[in-house]
């Protein structure tokens, strides 16, 4: 009785010509693949392949964790093409996002083959959690081995069928060689820190200048908090800011005929997450702020009001989904209102908040956004305490921040004062805002709303101390350090002597504004730089 050989499908350029599985072309690890009579789905796991690809789209840093895979280890053609495109993006150090992947696939003429944008976006919903990417990648690898074994087993059968002139030991040796050709060595553990390893070569490389979403205040890839007592209009102030950024308008322009300069903004998409005010109030506020400035409804502002499932900043999956939402909207300014209700089970006054803030920092760094969190002021803060201690909660909250802005308001006043209680890398002088609004006739609902900038007394910032130093020197060239410190202290009595001396020394070293002339016995006398 003649033995039938298994069916064979020939691959041309990596594409299957005859074998189909679940409506998708299968791919192979060699020029030919054999197709046993068993169901094709036994030779690949579609869900696992989708999970790997979707996890990378949600968290591009996950790619290095599955770098042991190669495109031909995927059992479905379009997954092979997608992973190959991701691999090329990674090789050129390009962030793997929906947009960059679509671009790469179009460049390779594979965009329509994989199912277009709809299939790429669908991959984002195909995963239980990106944390399972390693398990999914292992499944992809196991099925790759199964296909390799299936292919080799048919080759061994062919050797047995066609080996009329071979001795049994020669057939066994040939079969063993075929089996040995399959690499089943254990996968080396991938160090998740490899992607983050840097050397002095990285440090010395030219870097682009720091980019600000709001000039001199909110930088890209920054974690910020605006906080204050209830009723200080902090959420309203941020809503006004979001409208300005979405439209690319200056923020806090002064009232007509008033002095002052607005904060320039970078026009960028904005994402607002409301877990405090509710949909009706959030709709009302954006309606009023947007219509006051005649902002078109197509401006790139997206907001979620009281969404479910609730956002929990202690949950890795929730953090990954937030990153995904930010990337889908291309948001560069993100506001979350407020910290107290997104901290999961973490005790706000305990070190548990360190992990919450670390997760929020990860969001800001991964998406390169200016992330602003709304928070509350500590009750009963003494005037003699350090300014940063007015921020409610554990010290780990303040420690994680790039910028903390305290909003203060006298009862029923339409003027609010904003001052930095922590600023990392940039000095933010105090500033003020005047809230103006109208109600719809016969209602308490906002019709128009807007903040105008107002000048406030600055007697505590580094910039105020610099101005006082320059003013003292300009009026008394050749003044010595002791006299200079005394003069500044008279102008700014709340500033400590040590801090004044430090800023004098900093100006002296930079030489751009202040120049020291050596006198007798090593004394220094100061004049303005030429």
Structural notes for this entry:
The chain has helices at residues 46-58, 77-91, 98-107, 116-124, 133-162, 168-180, 200-204, 234-247, 279-292, 316-329, 353-367, 395-399, 462-474, 481-491, 497-510, and strands at residues 7-12, 15-16, 20-21, 24-25, 32-35, 212-214, 218-219, 222-228, 270-274, 301-305, 333-337, 370-376, 403-409, 415-423, 431-439, 446-454, 479-480, 514-518, 524-528. With 530 residues, it is α/β, with parallel strands linked by helices. The protein has 3 domains: 7-180, Orthogonal Bundle (DNAb Helicase, Chain A), CATH 1.10.860; 212-454, P-loop containing nucleotide triphosphate hydrolases (Rossmann fold), CATH 3.40.50.300; 462-528, Arc Repressor Mutant, subunit A (Orthogonal Bundle), CATH 1.10.10.10. The strands form 5 sheets. Strands 10-9-11-12-8-13-14-15-16 form a 9-stranded mixed beta sheet. A 3-stranded antiparallel beta sheet has the order 2-1-5. A hairpin with a 6-residue loop joins strand 15 and strand 16 (446-454). It is elongated, with a radius of gyration of 32 Å.
CATH topology of the largest domain: Rossmann fold
Query: Number of domains in the coordinates?
Result: 3
> What is the CATH C level class of the largest domain, in words?
Alpha Beta
Mean pLDDT: 83
- The CATH homologous superfamily of the largest domain is called P-loop containing nucleotide triphosphate hydrolases
In DSSP terms (H or I, runs of 4 or more residues), the helix count works out at 15
């Amino acid at each position: 009785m003649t033995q039938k050989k298994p069916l064979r499908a020939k691959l041309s350029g990596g594409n299957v010509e005859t074998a189909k599985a679940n409506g998708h072309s299968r791919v192979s690890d060699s020029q030919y693949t054999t197709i046993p009579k068993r169901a094709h789905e036994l030779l690949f796991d579609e869900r696992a392949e989708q999970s790997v690809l979707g996890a990378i789209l949600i968290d591009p840093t996950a790619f290095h964790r599955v770098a042991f895979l190669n495109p031909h280890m995927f059992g479905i053609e379009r997954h092979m093409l997608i992973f190959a495109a991701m691999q090329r993006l990674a090789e050129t150090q390009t962030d793997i996002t929906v947009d960059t992947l679509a671009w790469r696939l179009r460049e390779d003429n594979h965009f329509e083959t994989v199912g277009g944008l709809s299939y790429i976006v669908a991959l984002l919903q195909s995963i239980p959690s990106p944390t399972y990417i390693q398990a999914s990648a292992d499944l992809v690898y196991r099925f790759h081995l199964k296909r390799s074994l299936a292919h080799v087993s048919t080759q061994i059968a062919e050797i047995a069928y066609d080996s009329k002139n071979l001795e049994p030991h020669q057939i066994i040796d040939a079969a063993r060689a075929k089996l040995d050709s399959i690499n089943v060595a254990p996968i080396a553990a991938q160090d998740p820190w490899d992607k983050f390893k840097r050397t002095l070569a990285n440090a010395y490389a030219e870097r682009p200048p720091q980019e600000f979403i709001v000039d001199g205040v909110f930088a890209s890839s920054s974690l910020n908090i605006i906080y204050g007592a209830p009723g200080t209009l902090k959420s309203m102030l941020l809503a006004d800011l979001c409208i300005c950024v979405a439209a690319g308008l200056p923020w806090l322009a002064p009232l007509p005929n008033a002095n002052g300069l607005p904060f320039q903004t970078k026009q960028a998409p904005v994402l607002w997450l409301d877990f405090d005010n509710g949909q009706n109030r959030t709709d009302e506020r954006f309606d009023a702020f947007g219509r006051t400035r005649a902002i078109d409804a197509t401006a790139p502002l997206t907001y979620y009001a009281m969404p479910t499932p609730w956002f929990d900043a202690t949950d890795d999956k929730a953090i990954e989904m937030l990153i995904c939402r930010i990337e889908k909207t291309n948001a560069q300014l993100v506001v979350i209102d407020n910290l107290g209700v997104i901290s999961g089970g973490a005790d706000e006054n305990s070190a548990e908040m360190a992990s919450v803030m670390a997760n929020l920092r990860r969001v800001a760094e991964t998406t390169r956004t200016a992330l602003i969190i709304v928070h509350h002021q500590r009750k009963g803060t003494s005037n003699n305490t350090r300014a940063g201690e007015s921020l409610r909660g554990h010290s780990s909250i303040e420690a994680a921040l790039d910028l903390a802005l305290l909003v203060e308001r006298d009862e029923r006043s339409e003027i609010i004062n904003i001052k930095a209680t922590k600023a990392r890398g940039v000095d933010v002088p105090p500033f003020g805002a005047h809230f103006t609004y109208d109600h719809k006739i016969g209602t308490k609902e906002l019709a128009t709303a807007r903040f105008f900038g107002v000048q406030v007394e600055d007697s505590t910032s580094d910039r105020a101390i610099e101005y006082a130093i320059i003013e003292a020197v300009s009026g008394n060239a050749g003044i010595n350090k002791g006299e200079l410190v005394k003069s500044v202290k008279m102008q700014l009595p709340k500033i400590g002597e040590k801090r004044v001396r430090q800023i004098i020394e900093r100006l002296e070293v930079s030489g751009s504004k202040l120049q020291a002339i050596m006198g007798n016995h090593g004394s220094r006398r100061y004049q303005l730089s030429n």
